Amino acid sequence: MSSSELNAVEHVYLIAGNLGLPGAPILNLALFYHPDDGSVSGEALITQSIAPAHGRVVIRPVSGPVHGLGLGNATRVFSLSGEYVVSVPPPAFGSYLASLKRPL
Questions:
Q1: Beta partners for 15?
Q2: pLDDT above 90: residue 73
Q3: C-alpha angle with apex 35: 104 to 64, nearest 5 degrees?
Q4: What is the largest CA-CA distance in the chain?
Q5: DSSP letter assigned to residue 51
Q6: Which residues pair with residue 11 across a beta bridge?
Q7: Before 52, cis peptide (omega within 30)?
């Protein structure tokens, strides 16, 4: 086996947000970390308890580069980007494409 065959893709699951605050938006990430090229890819889910049921946004795919820090316990950071469709609530109609760009 070559060394490139031993570099497996890793699954990363992250939750970000203020979990103790009712109604606060929560970001759930299901990502694959690709160590060969230093990138992540996957999907994001933003949930928020708001009425009516507009509190769920699925963003797929998301992707971005991973950067090493070497500072204390925070050894890597990444920035994500992706696009998702937003439907306009009634009485208006239609939808538009929005983008997500976040450093984490």
A1: 28
A2: no
A3: 35
A4: 61
A5: S
A6: 32
A7: yes
Which residue from 56, 76, 70, 83 is spatially nearest to 14, judged by alpha carbons?
Answer: 76
Mean pLDDT, range 33-42, rounded to an integer:
91
Least confident piece of the model among 5-14, 27-36, 55-64, 87-96: 5-14
DSSP symbol at 5: H
**24, two tokens:** 């606060």
Q: Which residues of 25-43 are buried (b: 16+ CB within 10 A; e: fewer)?
A: ebbebebebbeeeeebbbe
Torsion angle defined by CA atoms of residues 56, 61, 67 and 68, in that order, rounded to the nearest 10 degrees: 70
pTM of the entire predicted model: 0.77
